[in-house]
Specification:
Layout (H helix, E strand, L loop, with lengths): L1 E5 L14 H12 L6 E3 L2 E8 L2 E8 L6 H12 L6 E7 L7 E4 L8 H10 L5 E6 L9 H5 L5 H24 L1 H8 L5
Parallel strand pairs: 1-4, 1-5, 5-7
Antiparallel strand pairs: 2-3, 3-4, 6-7
Helix pairs in contact: 1-5, 2-3, 5-6
Length: 189
């Protein structure tokens, strides 16, 4: 079994914000896999699917971003999911809007949701797909930027990157993280 967790914040006020890119990628995956992410378990919303003979658990933590690790850890513990079968999808301000970066392990890069997951799992050795949302322009603060809604040309770039992130997650499952890195780490919308 694979766990694919998309990070975001629950609630209507956070829908379609940059910080909810992970949730939106999971929605794309669910649509592609004809799955529904609508059951409450592990402090999150879950859905199940099968892809190329592999069972997938799709998880949207409902703990708010900074406590995402509680939900991910509960699911990993319950299903005894190995580290190399965990994929976390989330937004990254350090990547230009519309870029992707896939890594098999690594630090949180200052992302609070990832800090929580690394802390709760006691490891950083799991796959992650980062979707670039870019840095705020001018005087705008980081919190205001990540909680801002997607709009204009930036929205088109990020939506293209979200589509690529969904494809990358499936490629990780079918062909491995290194193949996905080779194909998508140069992606730019």
């Amino acid at each position: 079994m694979y766990l694919i967790a998309g990070l975001g914040n629950p609630g209507r006020e956070y829908e379609h914000t940059r910080h909810n890119v992970g949730f939106m990628v999971l929605d794309l995956l669910a649509e592609r896999l004809d799955a529904k992410i609508n059951r409450i378990k592990f402090k999150g919303l879950i859905g199940e699917a099968v892809y190329e003979g592999e069972k997938l658990l799709l998880l949207k933590p409902q703990t708010y971003m900074n406590l995402s690790g509680e939900s991910v850890s509960d699911a990993v513990s319950f299903y005894k999911i190995p580290q190399d079968r965990i994929i976390i999808i989330y937004d990254d301000m350090d990547l230009a809007a519309g870029r992707l970066r896939i890594r098999p392990e690594g630090s949180s890069g200052g992302h609070r949701g990832m800090e929580s997951i690394i802390y709760q799992l006691s490891t950083d050795k799991f796959c992650r797909i980062r979707v670039g949302i870019g840095r705020p322009e001018g005087e705008r603060d980081a919190a205001g930027h990540v909680l801002g809604r997607l709009c204009g040309e930036e929205a088109l770039k990020i939506k293209a990157a979200m589509e690529a992130a969904a494809q990358a997650a499936l490629l990780i499952i079918s062909r491995g993280v290194h193949e996905a890195m080779n194909k998508f780490n140069s992606f730019e919308a």
